Amino acid sequence: MSTPDLNLLLTLDAVLSEGSVARAARRLQLSPSAMSRALARLRATTGDPLLVRAGRSLVPTPRALELREPVSQLVQDAQAVLGPAESFDRAQLIRTFTLRTSDGFLENFGPGLVVRASQEAPGVRLRFVQKVDKDRAPLRDGAVDLETGVVDETTGPEVRIRALFRDRYIGVVRTGHALSRGKITPARYASGKHILVSRQGLDKGPVDEALKSSGLEREIVTIVGGFSAALTIARATDLVATVPERHTANLRAGMYCFPLPVAAQEFTVSMLWHPRMHADPAHQWLRGLVLDTCAAVR
Fold it and tell me: Which pLDDT does position 179 carry in this prediction?
């Protein structure tokens, strides 16, 4: 069975709607001869003359009258499918978005995201999953809608990226700790006993590289997988936690914080998503929500 020429639907809709070959030609911006050929093909395809002469005008056949409404609907449906997406009503949106983030991001920005999402789109549910590595497969596979983190050489070229904020590492100790008094020099900082945060369980970090360039080395007593755990330990001991400043703003209440006395590089935290989601209005709203929430938390 041969595949029908679906372009003929547009011609048929114009002919049946206008009831005139000349007007249908003008509507489709076709020459009279091109319109005549198209009408001949329509007649051959449908096995019906469709329009027949009655005096000086053309009148539709019963078959044409039967086809008028369904053909018009088919054309409207096709135009809706092929046209740009209409703006959506977020108040009526029913959807679950999966966000892959670090514990620090969730603890600091998660509450604001949940509150704002429930206010703007009550039918939306945010599902947070822990980011244990930098594998972008969940984004590609559609298991994750949005991810946050630091972009590096492992980020594939197909991933879309938008910067959220700049962050830097700071030192944090309990109130009354020796480092909460006096000037903190690189030597004083390095002489303390430290907590290292590493999701991969590494025993060194960027701060250790910065200390090494100054001929110093710190003693790492314990290694944990998240900033929250590091701050919990630092709050109850004499250990020093080194954590991102903006990531941990909500978690450091009542603790003493200080700029690092070594030149540790600042870094940019971004949100990442797959191109398949880029034009989706609901996903655009989600990205705007994350951007605004991060901007509001200082």
Answer: 95
